[in-house]
């Protein structure tokens, strides 16, 4: 069966079921970043920023004290919504309440950053989705940081990053070390870096990534978590009676068990927006790092590597150059950012000022952003770090 046929069937199945299943649930759609902010009573301004290679990104600002800008960066397959989706108990709201000028960035390809000056994400698929977290680090981050510093007339900002949101900063700061001067501190939550000790089942996907790469290429599929995938996810998770529980179980099995990440219907809120699009190339890049045991640039194969990098192997990111103050906050039951990877990260970065677990057990990879009680446990820690290391 071809992929096109599969897409068609899944769309039909979706349309058939949607009426009877999904619309029954009044929480059918989740408000966007700005409407959540506005519902909570905050002004929210969406800024459109164009990178040097033509991607058009959305950067949200909830204005506060202009001398204290904070930049939030989400992780893999996610968007800035992750930091506000918990409503008045969201991390972003705790930081807004503390008076900071809050900026929430978006990586290329996601729900808020799908535009490009010349390419169409739905038509020019091979060219548009030809990026990994490397390009996010070298293009998307400087564009957003420079924009914020210009708007606020400040020399530096603070950063809070979740998951792959940290990897992109390590790329930026090792590639353009002058950006270390512009960041203080960099607070990483469950950072993704070496990715060598990611646990099953994601570990298994990583191991078979070379096979998946061939399949994706044959199917001409460059976008990950595209519209068809979203329809599938929404259909599966809204099937009664156990769709919600099933999706909850899948997410917990990938990120680690936790007591209450999705309790009380929060799974529906999450499923209605997550995961969001990224590129297949981005996931392959993570898998390459993991399988080669090197936190390095994208591996194009030895011939192209020689032409591109002057070496058969892609160059490793030089974490010695990441010398701004970094805080590493970990969860004790995080299958995607496990302790072994963070030990290596801590040993590679020259200026780790805080390296500790968040005091809650069990806590998984998603709890940093989605955990119900984080406003009591994690947010006060973050506010203290911001005060202390700014
Ligand atoms: C803004 O923050 C700066 C630095 O923390 C502080 O000195 C100033 O009083 C704050 N301004 C307002 C209006 O709160
Ligand atoms: C969040 O809002 C709800 C409903 O308005 C309120 O009951 C609750 O106390 C608020 N929580 C916090 C932490 O502000
Ligand atoms: C993708 O990017 C690589 C590296 O910049 C380039 O060599 C290749 O031609 C690009 N592929 C497409 C389809 O644009
Ligand atoms: C800063 O912003 C001003 C006005 O918005 C603009 O004219 C100027 O070119 C910007 N400077 C840089 C370095 O981007
Ligand atoms: C980081 O390294 C640069 C270049 O070596 C140096 O100028 C700067 O002072 C260092 N910053 C810190 C915080 O150590
Ligand atoms: C983190 O790294 C520092 C510097 O290399 C080292 O002194 C410290 O023991 C490390 N902490 C842990 C828990 O490994």
UniProtKB/TrEMBL annotation:
Keyword Transport in annotation: no
Domain AB hydrolase-1: residue ranges: 69-195
GO biological process, one term: lipid catabolic process
Keywords: Glycoprotein, Hydrolase, Lipid degradation, Lipid metabolism, Signal
Active site: 163, 334, 365
Keyword Glycoprotein appears in the UniProt entry: yes
Superkingdom classification of source: Eukaryota
Pfam families for this protein: Abhydrolase_1 (PF00561)
Record's signal peptide: 1-23
GO molecular function: hydrolase activity, acting on ester bonds
PANTHER family, per database record: LYSOSOMAL ACID LIPASE-RELATED
Similarity comment: Belongs to the AB hydrolase superfamily. Lipase family.
Protein name from the UniProt record: Lipase
